[in-house]
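User: Could you go from structure to sequence for me? I need the amino acid at each position, not a summary. C-alpha cells:
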C-alpha cells in the first residue's frame, strides 16, 4: 500500500472528525520519520515501519479526549485496542499489532491486573524489532503542540517513562542503546 492510500484511509476514518487530524497527522508523520531513520540503521522492514507508524494512533477517535477533539467514549489508554480492531477489520494485520503494543514501552498482563487498568488482561508489548522501533520513536513525540514535530529531549522522555516503573525504564534504556 502506498502512503497516499494510507492517508486516504485515515481521512475516511476521520471524515466526521477532521479537527483530530490537526494533531494525528503531524504526530504520526514525526513518529514515522524517526522510526524510518532507525529502521534503516537496523535493517528492519522500512516500508512496514513507515506504514505502521503512520497508523499507530488511529484508534484515538474512539476515545474521550477533549484536548484532541476526540469525542468517543473510551479512556485514552484504550486507543491501542480500538486501533488494533479497526486496522484488523481493514486488513492491516501487522500494523494492528503495533497499534496495540506501542503504548508506553508496552504493557504486561501483570501490570494491567496489578494496576486495575481499563484494558483486556493480555500482554501488550512489542515483540519484534519493528514493533520496538515504532514504540521507541513514539516516545519522542506527543500530541501536545510543542512536540508534534519537534522531538522531546531524551531526559524528558526518560522522566516520562520512569513514571511507569523500573521495568519500563529498563526496557527504554535497552532501546536507547539499541537505537541511538
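Assistant: Here is the amino acid at each position, in order:
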Amino acid at each position: 500500500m502506498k502512503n497516499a492510500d494510507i492517508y486516504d484511509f485515515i481521512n475516511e476514518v476521520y471524515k466526521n472528525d477532521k479537527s483530530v487530524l490537526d494533531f494525528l497527522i503531524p504526530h504520526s508523520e514525526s513518529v514515522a520519520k524517526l522510526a524510518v531513520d532507525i529502521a534503516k540503521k537496523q535493517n528492519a522492514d522500512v516500508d512496514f515501519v513507515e506504514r505502521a507508524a503512520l497508523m499507530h494512533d488511529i484508534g484515538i477517535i474512539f476515545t474521550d479526549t477533549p484536548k484532541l477533539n476526540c469525542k468517543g467514549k473510551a479512556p485514552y489508554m484504550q486507543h491501542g485496542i480500538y486501533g488494533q480492531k479497526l486496522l484488523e477489520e481493514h486488513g492491516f494485520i501487522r500494523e494492528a499489532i503495533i497499534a496495540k503494543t506501542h503504548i508506553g514501552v508496552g504493557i504486561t498482563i501483570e501490570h494491567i491486573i496489578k494496576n486495575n487498568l481499563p484494558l483486556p488482561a493480555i500482554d501488550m508489548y512489542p515483540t519484534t524489532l519493528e514493533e520496538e522501533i515504532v514504540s521507541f520513536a513514539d516516545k519522542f513525540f506527543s500530541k501536545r503542540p510543542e512536540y508534534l514535530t519537534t522531538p522531546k529531549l531524551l531526559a524528558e522522555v526518560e522522566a516520562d517513562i520512569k513514571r511507569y516503573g523500573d521495568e519500563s525504564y529498563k526496557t527504554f534504556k535497552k532501546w536507547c542503546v539499541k537505537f541511538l
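One structural detail worth keeping in mind: The longest strand covers residues 64-65.
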